[in-house]
User: Fold this.
Amino acid sequence: MRQKVVKRDTTFDTMKGIGILLVMIGHAWEIPLEKRFIVYSFHMPLFFIIAGYFSKSYADGQNDFTIVKHYFKRLVPPFVFTTMLTFMFFCFNGFAQNDFTPAIRKLMSLFWADVNVLQTGFGPVNIGVVWFLLALFWAKTFLLFLSRWGKWVLPISFVLSAGALLLHKVFPYSVWCLSLGLVCLPFVAFGWWLRQNKLPLWIKVCLILAWLVAIKISHLDIYSYNWGRYPLDVIGACGGTCFLYLICKLLNKDSLKRYIGWLQKSLVYLGFISLAIMCFHCFEMETDLGNYLRALVGINMPVWALYVWRYALTIALAVAAVHVPKIKKIFV
Assistant:
């Protein structure tokens, strides 16, 4: 019998492609627009929502430990790879400058693995951009067992998230971003809920309107535990993701391939390797590799050109990495 081949829905790859570009632009602090529209809107939540959409549900008699193990093997190796690559860069730089303090700090961050700064004798230590990987591991694990309650998944996730935010005010540290995983739980729960239920048009409209309001009055910054208008922050981020989904659905129409086929393919490819881009973006930011190479050849650039150069370098490193078989297994 001929097996039925399920065609991959590239809409989600397109979303991740746009999302990873927004993540990189969001770290360009000189751009005023990003302070509300990108950083405080939906650029990170959309990755959690998409991950939730493709997450498994709890099932009696199923070996859920195997699923958690799969999550661990999928999300932790990229974190370790990025940290060790940065550590090696600082080691080589340490030989040149006779200063191994940055290398020691980076190695300590592998074990500290928290967004909150730990003051040490070698200076401040924290995890950096790859917090997302550990937080997503915890969020997907919590969702797996939470999903047994069906329709109660969303409200319970909000309660746990609010509890984690309150706990952070009392005790601002967590083991391997455990509390951030709880904080981000509503996003993966929303994505999972979307897979189980068809969203009515009026709810989509309300979510998008909430997103527009959140852009104006909210200050969502997951990394800093800054949720200015909870739960509007979460609802607005979900609305922004829904809006992006509609845009990407439109972009992926066959009727537009004649005009913007190159754009479609580019965004889909960026989405496909978005995990590698995120990790190399973290590496480039922490090592300042783009500036280092620019100074090495003695080229002066305006601020906008410098960011374009650094982002192009990041994407080039990610593309090169996913073409190395053993490294590709980590990211794709």
Remarks:
- The chain is about 70% helix and 0% strand.
- Residues 1-5 have pLDDT under 50 and may be disordered.
- The first helix runs from residue 10 to 26.
